[in-house]
Amino acid sequence: MSKQFVKIDKNFDLSRFNLDLSKELNLAGSIVIKDMVDKNRKGLGVNGSPLLPLSPKTVLAKKRRGSKQPHRALFDSGLMVGKGSTKGVGGRGLYLAKRAKKTRQEAVISVGAKRQEIGQYHNEGDGQPKREWFGVSKKANKDIIRMIELRIEELLRNV
């Protein structure tokens, strides 16, 4: 039996698409922020595994400052992770620093300026235990990709 192949060509005029995904990108930012905050509350890193413990020296220093939970990393003052905000207000925890617009299809998540260096230090390790907490988890990534796919499918149906 011979194999038969069918070839289908379809030309798309992409200029006919109004590919404004700013709403979806801003929602994606919110999904990532919520995911990082939820994982931090459970003592987990971005990949879902427990954050490495703090050194005894760090725990002692946090106790002296009056920390309520000195053994927990990234949980003391709320300045690093906090509750998260999509309003674009920095200072306490994660926030959507730049919202996507039709003319700029990019959403940027940040942490308060005073905590960026410490956040990077924890995330990268820099000679100390690495506590990856800032990033996009596999679950958040999957949810975001599905949301974008649905939006593009909707656009294709309306052409």
Describe the structure.
With 159 residues, the chain is mostly helical. It has one domain. It is built from 4 helices and 2 strands; from the N terminus they run ααββαα. It has a two-stranded antiparallel sheet.
Proportion of β residues? Answer: under 5%
Per DSSP E runs of 2 or more residues, the count of β-strands stands at 2
Please state the structural category: mainly alpha
Spatial strand order of the main sheet: 1-2
Biggest β-sheet description: 2 strands, antiparallel
Mean pLDDT: 82
Q: So how many helices?
A: 4
- Helical proportion? 25-40%
Q: Report how far the terminal alpha carbons are from each other.
A: 40 Å
**Based on CA inertia axes, which overall geometry fits?**
elongated
Rg value? 21 Å
How many structural units, i.e. domains? 1
Stretches where pLDDT is under 50 for at least 5 consecutive residues are none
What is the succession of H and E elements?
HHEEHH
Highlighted features:
159 residues; mainly alpha; two-stranded antiparallel sheet; 4 helices
SSE layout and pairing:
Layout: H1 22-41, H2 56-64, E1 95-98, E2 108-110, H3 116-124, H4 138-157
Antiparallel strand pairs: 1-2
Précis, in short:
The chain is mainly alpha-helical. 36% of the residues lie in helices and 4% in strands. Strands 1-2 form a two-stranded antiparallel ribbon.
